[in-house]
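Hi! If you just cloned this repository, the fastest way to understand the data is to look at a raw example. We've pasted two of them here, unedited. The first protein comes first, obviously.
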Amino acid sequence: MRVEYINPFVESAYSVIQEVLNVEVKRGELYLKSSSIPVLGVAAIVGLAGDVEGRVLFDMTRESALKVANDMLKSMDMDQIDSLNDMGRATITELANMITGQAVTKLHNLGFKFDLTPPAIFTGDNMEVSDPGVEALIVPMEIPQGKIEINVAIRERT
């Protein structure tokens, strides 16, 4: 996996989360995973196709997702939510959109061409994601609302 594909997602996640939530973001140690990866409970996934193929997953616990959604809603002077309802899921999806949009712009500026799928959100216990034959780079980020893991699995199209 080429670092040119990964850095824009890491940089974008860091800057968008910091700006949108107005919090300090602490990045943890990156690590590679080549087998199935457990999902923390709420995952927004964006597919990539073109010069590269793969996906980016924004993963967090249900509790963290609710806190993130409420902080985003509060910044827009919108009502708070008690559970990760449709509004909460849409808010987390919008965060994923903002991060991937910024990352894709950076990648296009570097000459890479590909398309994105709209983010899909998955919630539940005991979920895992598996990308046979593709290593995933996990980028943990700590914010006051909890941990968010950026899980990037991209390869060049063969």
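Ok, and the second one:
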Amino acid sequence: MIYAFKGFTPVVHPSSFVHPLAAVTGNVIIGKDVYIGPGAAIRGDWGGIIIKDGCNVQENCTIHMFPGVEVILEESAHVGHGAIIHGAHLMANCMIGMNSVIMDRAIVGEGSIVGAMTFVPADMEIPNRKIAVGNPAKIIKDVTDKMLDWKTKGTNLYQSLPADMHEYLEETEALTAIPKNRPNQEKLFEVWNEIKNK
């Protein structure tokens, strides 16, 4: 759902997809080919949120801030299921692991990877192409070219998802039995292998 708040109406590029069960409120700008999953709460009520081209914010994520703060997700930032971004800045092509928390004024560098369930405290700066894990987060090593390639290809898959959602997603009633002609997902595996092998 999209909600206006105090004169601010979210702006969403038509190539992007916001799931009907997500809530996008107020001063939010969403660029091209962005995926916003169900259960995501993107609250631009006290400050602004800019989600640039090619980002994804997956299921049950929260993006919010203290009053007067702007949260920015640079191009192709990848936010895993259940993560919380509070007043932080995510640089281009970084990845935030599932159920991680990124706190106020933290900066996650370009091409960096934050491991699942990591707590990045306020004011921490993770340099470009580093891996950070733990509570509190500690930088443990560099992101190799192979890791960055893997991450980028995963994000490419999410960048293709909005178009598919616009075309194929439909609300329906559940079936009570498995039909004989039920499709398989081999085509999805083909697409993933094609992306991985580029």
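That's it. A detail worth noticing about the second one: The mean pLDDT is 95.
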